[in-house]
Design a protein that fits this description.
This protein is an alpha+beta fold and about 70 residues long. It has 3 helices and 5 strands.
């Protein structure tokens, strides 16, 4: 049970334009991040648990980058 709790505390980035979990680059010295996929600065960040609750993400596979890439290639 502790392991699941640690996974929920991992920091993730959610692009509001792409509407998915993405990788992001930091812009400058502030807490502004740019989506690597669409290159916009409309990115929220937080723990996996908080992002899934706030943006109502039900699918756990949305947090797995390998699973997203495989589904996009098909």
């Amino acid at each position: 049970m502790k392991n699941n709790n640690l996974d929920d505390e991992a920091i993730v980035f959610y692009c509001k334009d792409c509407e998915e979990i993405v990788d992001a680059d930091k812009c400058g010295k502030r807490y502004v991040y740019k989506c690597k996929k669409c290159r916009t600065k409309n990115v929220a960040f937080g723990t996996k648990k908080s992002i899934s609750n706030y943006f109502r993400i039900q699918d756990d596979k949305a947090f797995e980058p390998e699973e997203r890439e495989k589904s996009e290639k098909k």
